[in-house]
Fold this sequence. Notes:
Blueprint: H1 20-23, H2 31-51, H3 56-74, H4 84-101, H5 104-117, H6 135-151, H7 165-191
Amino acid sequence: MDWDFHTAGIFPRRVENIWGVFTLIFVHADWSHLANNVISFVLLGSFLYYFYKELASKVMIISYIFSGLILWIIGRDSWHIGASGLIYSLAFFLFFSGIIRKHVPLIAISLIVAFIYGSMVWHIFPWQNQDPISWEGHLAGGIIGFFLSIYYRNEDPQKPVKIWDDEIDDSMDYWNENMEEPENESEQTNEK
């Protein structure tokens, strides 16, 4: 329909355009760009909300706002549109969080993210002089996702504490000893 919404994106370091931080993810270059971001958002968002129930909304909101703010600060003088910063933030959070927490289901999610989105890492670097893709937005999202995985490393799902058989045996011995004492005492008092 020849509508042009690129001005709802971000033009870095223009104070009058800072509101683009909140509208950037709703504007895409074409249907292919939109489809790629929607599919990635649904998949990564599902992983996030399934495995990190209590943290998911915090991570989503912080990723949304701060990836846009960092892009507004570091981006080149051009219009930046799309939800790629948010997508990169979610992917980096899921990957690094699983590695940091060392919990098997979360490590599995890290490996799945690496398998599906492993090539994303190359798009946080500039490939050409006038690269039409906002590598700065990708870099901003990656930075936020990485730092969120470190900041929230002690919240929500954690690796379960392993109770070794020795500990169980020791506690059972203690319990058995304490339980036998009253029986012995009663037997001794009855005998007298």
